[in-house]
Design brief:
This protein is of the alpha+beta class. 30% of the residues lie in helices and 26% in strands. Strands 2, 3, 4, 5, 6, 8, 9, 10 and 11 form a 9-stranded antiparallel sheet that branches. The protein has a two-stranded parallel sheet with strand order 1-7. A hairpin with a 5-residue loop joins β8 (220-225) and β9 (231-239). α3 (73-86) packs antiparallel against α5. The longest helix is centred in the first third of the chain and has 34 residues, at 31-64. The protein is globular, with a radius of gyration of 23 Å.
């Protein structure tokens, strides 16, 4: 019997609260005033239409900047896997038959929440199609320095500096790919508290969890250069089912970095938010190959 171990990553749903204001004009107007007002309204409407068009064009241009990720075999493999999972065992009959017992040591598909021969076959097909290797060697790591050592990366987390203080909560890794959860206190124009999930996706490996971002062309995206000179992208999207999700994304020589912004910063709806810049500046991405 194939056994399964489920690793649950909680993603906090971000809720967007919008407010509307109304303005009312009072007083009598002359015919000329009414005519001028009408003309002014027409001009304003035209400007809004142009603004909307420009905004849509800008969004399309910005979304294209994430082709560094969408063109990668790692992202495409992850997308294909989740498309498969959405249509597989929808009534959980197969899962109920198999059960949820601890996985045996050395199980080849441990990293993929796999519990049937069909899922194993699909994983093999994806790895062959995109030229990727399966992840292995799962480890839970409680110490940040130990994580850096085992993942083969440098000291990338600025834990205490003039405008930031961070605490690493937990982490686990496969073959250099890892997920680290942490909290950060950021000092900008105000003091901000942030919680996040910091994921490293190693190139050349099939990672099913951290790149499940959906259609990135629908995201609002902005490029930003950190104080350490590293180029990153701020990306967010609003969906009916999950609300607004915000990420910090960057590419390294041997990996992709995806930071899922959570917690007290969940009200972020604009990629121009100061807090995103502060959080990005709290990491040294150059320390990760």
């Amino acid at each position: 019997m194939i056994k399964k171990k489920i690793i649950v990553i909680l993603i906090v749903t971000m809720v967007v609260i919008s407010s509307l204001t109304a303005c009312q004009k009072t007083g009598d107007e002359t015919d000329n005033d009414a005519k001028q007002t009408e003309e002014g309204m027409e001009e304003t409407t035209g400007e809004e239409e142009i603004s909307d068009t420009e905004q849509e064009t800008l969004q399309q241009e910005n979304s294209a900047s994430l082709e560094l990720l969408t063109d990668s075999p790692e992202y495409q493999a992850c997308t294909e896997w989740w498309d498969f999972c959405e249509g597989y065992d929808t009534d959980f009959a197969i899962l109920e038959q198999v059960g949820n017992e601890p996985v045996e040591a050395g199980y080849e598909y441990e990293a993929y929440n796999c519990y049937s021969p069909d899922m194993e076959k699909k994983i093999d097909e994806i790895c062959e199609k995109y030229g990727l290797s399966k992840l292995s060697g799962f480890q839970i790591v409680d110490d940040y320095c130990e994580l850096c050592s085992k993942a083969g990366v440098g000291d990338f987390c600025e834990r205490e500096a003039e405008n930031v203080k961070q605490t690493v909560l937990s982490s686990y890794l496969y073959d250099g790919a890892f997920l680290m959860e942490g909290n950060a206190t950021l000092a900008g124009s105000s003091i901000y508290e942030a919680s996040y999930q910091f994921a490293r996706v190693t190139k050349g490996y099939f990672t099913s969890s951290y790149l499940n971002l959906g259609d990135l062309t629908k995201y609002n995206v902005r490029e930003y250069t950190t104080k350490k000179g590293e180029k990153v992208f701020f990306a967010n999207v609003t969906r009916e089912d999950t609300g607004t999700n915000t990420y910090i994304i960057t590419e390294r020589d041997k990996s992709f970095i995806v930071i899922n912004v959570l917690g007290d910063m969940s009200d972020i709806t604009d990629v121009n938010d100061e807090r995103l810049e502060l959080l990005a500046d709290a990491f040294d991405f150059s320390a990760i190959p």
